[in-house]
Amino acid sequence: MAGPSHATPYPVYRRVLQSAVSAICLEQGFGFCDATAMETLTEMLQATLIEVCHSAKSFAELGGRTEASAPDVCLAIADIGIRFEGMRDYMRRPGKIQIASPGIQACVTTPLTLRAGERKPLPSHIPDHFPPFPDSHAYIRTLTHRQPVTEYVAIREKVASQKRDIERALTRFVAKTSGTQTLFPDNPTLYPLIACKPSPQPWLVALEPKDQVFEDEEDDEKEELVPERGESGQQPDNPYLRGVKMPRRRF
């Protein structure tokens, strides 16, 4: 009788039955056994145990119980035709081979490749056989951006750092496109400075009012160009700036 291939404990149970059959064969004087004969004997033992278990379950349900007891097992054994006369003596025979109980193997859990946060335990109103909660990022809303920094000291430090980087980048750009000066003659590229261009009349720049705006030079009165009757002004492209057109009345 073949067992299901997807059941995990089936190979272990099959190995235990083969060990029991091997022990019985050794007690009877056999030195070796063919693989086909071993599989046949193991299959017969497994079929007998399954039939006994099914019959014991039927007797238990017939008596109104959910679990089989010792009398149910005895009735199931007698129902398939096995006698009890020599069973007790056979169980207490001397020199029988003891089969070691199979060890318990620890479950090998595959670690998750990506795990964010900690899993919350199940509340008291949810039974333990329910699956656990997934990772917190799967159902809890989390912000994907950081809050802006509002501290005065941090903002000033950031502005100073940006200003220093801009000045350094501008100095390097001007150093590559024009002449520079250096404070360290041994290493000109260590801290380059923008070279000042000499002017023949440096005092003239201070006297020229380039940045000043005088009110006398501004003309407050602007002449409006009125188009003649024969000339039609150019209509703007923006429809909101065009002139109003009165609709024509149809009689």
TrEMBL record:
SMART domains: BTP (SM00576). Residues 209-251 are annotated as: Disordered. The keyword Secreted does not apply. Residues 10-86 form the Bromodomain associated domain. The keyword Transcription regulation applies. GO terms for cellular component: transcription factor TFIID complex. Its main location: nucleus. Belongs to the TAF8 family. This is Transcription initiation factor TFIID subunit 8. It comes from Varroa destructor (Honeybee mite).
